[in-house]
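so ive been stuck on this for like two days lol. basically i have the seq below and the ligand is adenosine-5'-diphosphate, smiles is in there too. i just want the complex predicted, nothing fancy, no docking runs or whatever. if the output looks off dont worry ill sanity check it later, just need somthing to start from for the group meeting slides
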Amino acid sequence: MSEYVLEMYGIQKSFPGVQALNNVDFRLRPGTVHALVGENGAGKSTLMKCLFGLYSIDSGQVYLQGREVSFNHPRQALEHGVAMVHQELNQVPKRNVMENLWLGRLPKKTGFVNEKKMYENTKKAFSELGIDINPRAIMENLSVSVRQIAICAGQRSMMRCSTVGRRC
Ligand SMILES: Nc1ncnc2c1ncn2[C@@H]1O[C@H](COP(=O)(O)OP(=O)(O)O)[C@@H](O)[C@H]1O
Ligand SMILES: [Mg+2]
């Protein structure tokens, strides 16, 4: 098995009149964190969007746990445990943290949203990472960085549910 959880080789991506990515390699070991740094327009977002299936790559290979993958849609990326938290916030500011986290996959009980389960799931997602954010806090009252942390924790929890087969 590959020592890398993710490998990207020779990634090329052009838009009309601009080559955004020219032969980019990126490798990621399990349990590591990388910061992709570069000036505006360097191609950071494009590389992540190629990985997430939002953009199709012109050429190059992507391997997840040693297996070649080619995502044509973010849904496929999510199914393989790849999530993306977008730089541009696309949340519902008047709703609370947990509703934003579970948007589109709200735990339901006899047709109604299971508020208790949603609270418990959110608390668990946060406590696993030692994060102290009130799941009932209204999104717009939090700083952008705290909102991003909450969304990241929610994505991580969702990934673990889908990839580790945990009961959620
Ligand atoms: N959807 C798009 N259509 C056309 N050009 C794009 C598109 N997305 C990004 N680009 C161009 O690709 C280059 C890389 O952009 P981007 O990946 O957003 O850079 P970064 O995230 O590092 O600031 C820039 O020249 C940008 O104008
Ligand atoms: Mg960007």
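The mean pLDDT is 90. The pocket of magnesium ion (ligand 2) is lined by residues 44-45, 87 (CB under 6 Å).
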